[in-house]
């Protein structure tokens, strides 16, 4: 589902995600949702974007050692780019499987780390790319088509 | 079946922690989970969430997933900071002494449904 060339999204806003800030985790995604609410999307689209942002933000907080989330916007598309400088994902195919997790007890106590984050991101994205290698961080590019 | 929050609070003998002014609002379905990713994956907007977790992520997950109100089970009580966050998001919170199983069972017996039953989707 590659968007047409004339729909190349434009940069809208960049957020910083703090490392290991378990109490504050999720703030960025709420800010993304509020930002896009002002633009005027349907509740269903907003929900999909917010779920992708939230799961990605949790991953950056829990595993990525902090990073950033950027929002790009075209008339019929939202692109989220989430990057960290963490340890990377050694086996992406495994990480995409529902239920597979390397979460610590602290992460699970927060209600995350059940191995559903990346599958949830995939389920709510119309296009998803993940670039990762051990020691070089992870970059996730997710696009949600606006209906 | 749409159910008013005041009715839920009464059935569960729950104490309302925030959103006292919002008890006339209705929930359409209920979802019970301690894993927030489960809520993000499977809950439907307009649902009631029953959970044993009482941290800020519950409130943020509810905001992201379009959850209409949260019931903390087995007497769980969130911190002041969590209650303030819920007020910021206009999210009613209540706490009940019943366990997760019993709280769900009481609501089901009264006619509230989850998303996985055909009658819940009506």
**Low-confidence blocks of residues of chain B:** none
What's the CATH C level of chain A?
Alpha Beta
Strand order of the largest sheet of chain A: 1-2-3-5-4
Q: Which spans of chain A of ≥5 residues are poorly predicted at pLDDT below 50? A: none
What is the class of chain B in the CATH system? Alpha Beta
- Give the CATH topology of chain A: Heat Shock Protein 90
Q: Please report the two chains with the greatest interface, counting residues with C-beta closer than 8 angstroms to the partner's C-beta.
A: A-B, 26 and 22 residues
What does the model show?
The complex is a heterodimer of chains A (147) and B (122). Helices cover 35% and strands 26% of the residues of chain A. Chain A has 5 helices and 5 strands. Chain A has helices at residues 27-39, 43-64, 92-95, 105-109, 117-124, and strands at residues 10-17, 67-74, 77-84, 127-132, 138-145. By secondary structure, chain A is an alpha+beta fold. Chain A has a single domain, classed as Heat Shock Protein 90, CATH 3.30.565. Chain A starts with 9 loop residues before the first strand and ends with a strand. Chain A has a 5-stranded antiparallel beta sheet, covered by helices on one side. Chain B is of the alpha/beta class and 122 residues long. Chain B has one domain (3-113): HprK N-terminal domain-like (Udp-n-acetylmuramoylalanyl-d-glutamate--2,6- Diaminopimelate Ligase, Chain: A, domain 1, 3-Layer(aba) Sandwich). Helix content of chain B is 35%, strand content 20%. Chain B contains 5 helices and 7 strands; from the N terminus they run E-H-E-E-E-H-E-H-E-H-E-H. Chain B has a 5-stranded mixed beta sheet, with helices on both faces. In chain B, strands 1-3 form a two-stranded antiparallel sheet. The relative contact order of chain B is 0.24.
């Amino acid at each position: 589902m590659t968007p047409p060339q004339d729909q190349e999204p434009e940069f809208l806003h960049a957020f910083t995600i703090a490392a290991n800030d378990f109490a504050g985790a999720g703030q960025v995604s709420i800010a993304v949702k509020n930002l896009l609410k002002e633009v005027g999307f349907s509740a269903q689209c907003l929900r999909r974007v917010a779920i992708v942002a939230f799961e990605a933000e949790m991953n950056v907080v829990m595993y990525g050692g902090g990073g950033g989330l950027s929002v790009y916007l075209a008339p019929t598309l939202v692109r989220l780019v989430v990057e960290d400088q963490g340890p990377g994902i050694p086996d992406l195919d495994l990480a995409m499987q529902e239920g597979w997790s390397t979460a610590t007890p602290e992460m699970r106590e927060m209600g995350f780390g059940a191995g559903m984050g990346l599958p949830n991101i995939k389920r709510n994205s119309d296009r998803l790319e993940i670039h990762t290698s051990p020691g070089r961080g992870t970059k996730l590019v997710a696009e949600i088509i606006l209906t | 079946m749409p159910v008013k929050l005041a009715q839920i609070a009464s059935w569960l003998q729950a104490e309302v922690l925030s959103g006292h002014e919002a008890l006339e609002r209705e929930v359409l379905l209920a979802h019970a989970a301690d894993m927030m990713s489960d809520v993000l994956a499977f809950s439907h907007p307009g649902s009631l969430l029953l959970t044993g977790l009482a941290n800020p992520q519950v409130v943020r997950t509810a905001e992201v997933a379009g959850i209409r109100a949260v019931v903390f089970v087995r007497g769980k009580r969130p911190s002041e900071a969590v209650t303030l966050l819920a007020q910021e998001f206009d999210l009613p919170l209540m706490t009940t002494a019943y366990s997760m199983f019993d709280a769900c069972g009481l609501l089901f017996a009264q006619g509230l449904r989850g998303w996985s039953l055909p009658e819940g989707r009506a």
